[in-house]
């Protein structure tokens, strides 16, 4: 059985889909900004960063990025940041 979608239902579905895409893009933008900030802080504090750092940052979620950004305040080495 084929269900026909009424125009107002279709419009609501498209609106929800667009809102979801916008929210995901916003979150990804925040994550990208957090990653860039952490990279800058690491470079400023410890000099050049090892090659594995950007790859590791790209694979992690926002909460861990925030934790690592806070860790840099007390870290004595770059490895301490990622503990």
Order of helices and strands: HHHH
The radius of gyration over CA amounts to 20 Å
Please give the count of helices: 4
Number of strands: 0
Strand content: under 5%
Assembly type of the shown chains? single chain
List low-confidence stretches. none
**Protein structure class:** mainly alpha
User: How far is it from the N-terminal to the C-terminal residue, by CA?
Assistant: 56 Å
Main sheet properties: none
Helix content range of the residues, please?
Answer: over 70%
- Mean pLDDT comes to 79
Number of domains: 1
Globally, the shape reads rod-shaped
What can you see in these coordinates?
The protein is mainly alpha-helical and 83 residues long. It has one domain. It contains four helices and no strands. Helix 1 packs parallel to helix 3. It starts with 6 loop residues before the first helix and ends with a helix. The model has no long low-confidence stretch (mean pLDDT 79).
């Amino acid at each position: 059985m084929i269900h026909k979608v009424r125009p107002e239902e279709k419009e609501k579905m498209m609106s929800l889909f667009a809102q979801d895409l916008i929210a995901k893009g916003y979150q990804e933008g925040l994550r990208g900004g957090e990653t860039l900030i952490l990279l800058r802080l690491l470079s400023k504090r410890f000099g050049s960063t090892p090659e594995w750092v950007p790859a590791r940052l790209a694979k992690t979620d926002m909460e861990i990025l925030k934790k690592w950004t806070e860790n840099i305040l007390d870290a004595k080495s770059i490895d301490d940041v990622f503990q």
